[in-house]
Amino acid sequence: MVSSFLTDVIVVTVVLGGMVFLHELGHFLAAKSFGVRVLTFSLGFGKRLFGFKRGDTDYRISLLPLGGYVKMAGDDPTAILTGDPGEFLSRPRWQRFVIILMGPAMNFLLAIVVLAGLYRFHFQKPAYEDQAVRIGAVEPHSAASDAGLEPGDRIVQFDGVKDPKWQDVKFNVLTGAGHSIPLTVMRDGQLTHTMLTPEAEGPSRTGKAGWYPYVPGIIDEVAPGEPASHAGLKPGDMIIGIGGQRNYFWPLVVQKLRDSQGKEISMTISRDGNEFQVQVQPQYTDVMGMKTWRIGVTIRNNEYVVRQLPLGLATEYSLRDNYRNFLETFDVLGKIVTRRMSARSLAGPIGIAQISGEAYRRGLADLLMIVSFISLQLGILNLLPIPILDGGQIFLLVVEGFMRRDLSLEIKERFLQVGIVFLLLIFVFVVYNDIVKTIRPS
After folding, report:
1. Count of C-beta atoms within a 10 Å radius of residue 169
2. Pick from 207, 143, 125: which is nearest to 171 by CA?
3. What confidence tens digit (pLDDT) does each residue in 1-13 have?
4. 429 vs 313, more confident
5. pLDDT, mean of residues 341-354
6. How crowded is residue 328: how many other Cβ atoms within 10 Å of its Cβ?
7. Which of 24, 87, 199, 226 is catalytic?
8. pLDDT on residue 349
9. How many angstroms separate the CA atoms of 201 and 192, rounded?
10. Is 410 a catalytic site residue?
11. pTM of the full predicted structure?
């Protein structure tokens, strides 16, 4: 428990530290390129721990690690300005706009580069994501079961989208807890209209349908002398049912075999277009050092696509996935604001640390995915028109650009005060949210 906590803290400090460094580096490089004097480049807030000074700039590491800032000459509107062209507020508005924008831009760039680099050497995704939505299995007493859905059904329209892919459906279910979603099902050549109401699940109260994609269990090898061999199963056979129920999602077949605890169980097999039943009695055997119930077959690997992509294609896929995540982020924010989605889905510093630590323990590929995603979210957060964030400053510059004059110092101060209070309230809420999800996980 303690070691996991320490791992989470170290991982999130390194991850966010790197992101903050690049964010502030964007401001720093843009300011330097326009001749603005940078007084401080700090990783962290609060008391200066150590660093060095070169030219006008004090490069420092400060006490509180989750954050950072760049202090430029003449960036405080309440201070007395000399008109020196090296002062931030002496530069034209478009240059100030670029300097501020370069922070979030570096976060977006990091998200794209990290994901493209990962895809170049390790591109993995569920094979079914880009396929038509055909249901492989339905959990009893679930939202999908209540909607009358069955294994083998194909969804031809979902929430107004015709011929959806699993990738489209997954996000709408995840963000649609408690809200009815219209869909049209094709079954045995007949169309049926129904409504799916995802159930809120877990500490984040995200939606769950209780269905699984069509990923049939196609037998790749049959071990001689094992129960499957005795039952007459052969390579190429497709397991389409178990225990008298249709099932086209092979991981659940494996789970039901384990749950049988050695009791004989019936399986429905498809071979050369014909269906038949077999009776199989699982054996309790050792598999890679772990005891489990099995029948002596290996299933063809058809659940995931794993490959390396050429650099150009890796970059294209990275841009596509980041763009989709960008749009989905605003969709989630909109649903939270309109109370169509629980605010418990938001993660604060504790939640981000837990997510980062879990990704680290799963492996480098998962950690890089999380780094890319968090960097994208950091860029989006900083572009929101919230005072004291980059987006708030950009908003004021745009307003002043349309007015063709600067806003009064009083207005800017009030704007800043509102932003500070708002951010403090948000911070308190997300930390409380994290604590509640940790101590009450269901």
Report:
1. 22
2. 207
3. 556 778 888 888 8
4. 313
5. 76
6. 14
7. 24
8. 75
9. 27
10. no
11. 0.80
Q: Which domains does the chain have, with CATH numbers?
A: 2-122+351-439 (no CATH), 135-211 (2.30.42.10), 217-299 (2.30.42.10)
CB-based contact 181:197 (threshold 8 Å) = yes
pLDDT in tens, 266-276: 989 999 889 99
CA distance 70 to 43: 9
Alpha-carbon torsion, ordered 75, 80, 85, 87, to 10 deg: -20
- Which pLDDT does position 403 carry in this prediction? 87
Q: How confident is the model at residue 130 (pLDDT cuts 50, 70, 90)?
A: confident
- Burial of 374 from C-beta contacts in 10 A (0-12 / 13-18 / 19+): buried
Q: Check: CB of residue 271 under 8 Å from CB of residue 238.
A: yes
Query: 24 φ, ψ to 5°?
Result: -70, -30
Write the CB contacts of 253 (distance below 8 Å, at least 6 apart in sequence): 217, 239, 242, 247, 267
For residue 192, what are its two tokens?
Answer: 């049926």
Q: Which residue type sits at 231?
A: A
